[in-house]
Amino acid sequence: MFHLIWMFIVGIVVGVIAKWILPVGHIGWIMTGILGIVGSFVGGFIARLFSKPADGSLVHPAGILLSIVGAVIVLFLAQFLGLTG
Q1: CA atoms of 85 and 78, how far apart (whole Å)
Q2: Does a structural domain hold residue 24?
Q3: Does some domain include residue 12?
Q4: Structural domain tally of the chain?
């Protein structure tokens, strides 16, 4: 349970940074957290395209940076599709 709470807190931080980089209309805290979590998955996918993490590693070394990049990409796509306010 604590893992899910921690993941959401990190998601909020990543989402806030992404919204700071690419300003959009007002979206709430829950959507910001979801943005950060989805951005982390996108960033992890991008990281695995270029290099595999070490065997047994839980996170990729470029994790938080690529999570922010992934969140900005997701935010851009949401804005492009008209899903943000």
Answers
A1: 10
A2: no
A3: no
A4: 1
In a domain, 78, yes or no: yes
The single-letter code of the amino acid at 10 is V
Q: Is residue 47 a part of any domain in this protein?
A: yes
Q: 63: exposed, middle or buried (C-beta count within 10 Å: 0-12, 13-18, 19+)?
A: middle
Phi and psi of 55, rounded to 5°? -60, 130
Cα dihedral sign for 34, 15, 78, 76?
A: negative
Q: What is the dihedral of CA 38, 12, 47, 20, to 10 degrees?
A: 110
Range of the domain at 74: 31-51+60-85
Q: Which pair of tokens denotes residue 19? A: 């919204």
pLDDT per residue as tens, the chain (85 positions): 777 787 788 888 888 898 899 888 788 888 888 888 888 888 878 877 887 766 766 665 667 788 888 889 988 988 888 877 6
Q: What is the pTM of this model?
A: 0.78
